[in-house]
Amino acid sequence: MGESGRVPGSPASTVAVMEPEVAGCLATEQGALEPGALPGAGSGMDWKQSLRRRLEGAERPAKRSDQELKDEEMELFTKFYTEWKGNRSGSTSSQNIPRFYYRLPGEDEILLQKLREESRAVFLQRKSRELLDNEELQNLWFLLDKHQTLPMVGDEAMINYESFLKVRDKAGPKCKQFFAATVFAKLLHNDAYGRIPIMQFFNYVMRKVWLHQTRIGLSLYDVAGQGYLRESDLENYILELIPTLPQLDGLEKSFYSFYVCTAVRKFFFFLDPLRTGKIKIQDILACSFLDDLLELRDEELSKESQESNWFSAPSALRVYGQYLNLDKDHNGMLSKEELSRYGTGTLTNVFLDRVFQECLTYDGEMDYKTYLDFVLALENRKEPAALQYIFKLLDIENKGHLNVFSLNYFFRAIQEQMKVHSQEPVSFQDVKDEIFDMVKPKDPFKITLQDLIQSGQGDTVSSILMDLTGFWSYENREVLVANDNDTTADPEDS
């Protein structure tokens, strides 16, 4: 026995060394144990079973539903995550993220559509008011001229950075965006006094104002309000632009629809290569087509400029006149036989077959819009979009590359035409080797579209394969160059 008179291992001693809570439970179950008392043999297992039941009950809480467990898990996660972030106010970082997606109204939500259109109109009007008007531009020019820094470089007025900042402070809040240090640095070249030309800076401001004005004008026709124009949107824009272009004053109104179709087709041919039916407004502003179109505001535009401008009246009438001349049966469409007389009439039948296989036709005949794509491709063979159009026709196996078989398939038609014109056919092996030497493809046995574009020889290769005249020009290139040199040489030097 120990000093207290208890039997070691007895229930009383066990109760004494247990945790108070467990001991209390045991005492409640068996009744109070007197110090030194031993329970009967029959009750020796009762307290053990009771303790085991209590412990098992504590380890097995009442079963909860999956939703309750998920709620508790989320509550604990939010609590610990908030503490970890040091934000104990109860708000989470997700509440501070600005909204960046707005659902477009459905077709049946007329009121929401009207509200959205009105909101866009108000927004565009506000942006338009932020632009410099003619009076403000004249005032800016006056200030720049007043603060020019001597000495002048020839007839060109210059301004240094100190005066540049003075003009910024006097020009008004609308002009401050143009007077950045980066703008001054870009216009600074080799002036010994660290100045920039006033005219160059003013032209920069004018260009920026014009771009913003044009973007706002185009956005007014963006019916979807998502930053792009569909074909019908651009048609409406150009149709309403015609009366503001003096160079188009001579067009008859009956020709307006054909002119609009001709103009819009160039935008979509080059700016929508995937044929999605829409063009980003940013892409329209970035290309030179709009500059060419608005060049028609110049009442004194030279004849040469008009002939080289796709959007001029003479150019549009030329293309449409060619279409009418090819349409011998006057049904408004072109058959393969009618199209074969295009240009010099030396396009091969094999190439024309591919045109009518791949391009959109109606009962085997081509409409004016498809014809415009055809003309744009053949007149701009150096451009990637035109090469993409032609490459699709040359890729008869739809493998994404041209191989020896593809080249031979098209060149055989050139050889046949040479026989018809009593010319000695050229060996295909020689032409094939020349083509691969010109293009220098990554794979020595395959020519991809990218290879053609990067080589800079895509126009020559396509001409060799589809047009007898093009092949003849290539074969006699040295003679033609010599003749050109003789023609341009000064008679006094000969």
Automatic annotation (TrEMBL):
InterPro entries: EF-hand-dom_pair (IPR011992), EF-hand_13 (IPR041534), EF_Hand_1_Ca_BS (IPR018247), PPP2R3C (IPR039865). It comes from the Eukaryota. Keywords: Calcium, Cytoplasm, Metal-binding, Nucleus, Repeat. Residues 223-299 form the PP2A regulatory subunit B'' EF-hand domain. GO terms for molecular function: metal ion binding. PROSITE patterns: EF_HAND_1. One of its GO terms (cellular component) is nucleus. It is found in: Cytoplasm; Nucleus. The keyword Magnesium does not apply. Gene3D superfamilies: 1.10.238.220, EF-hand. This is Serine/threonine-protein phosphatase 2A regulatory subunit B'' subunit gamma.
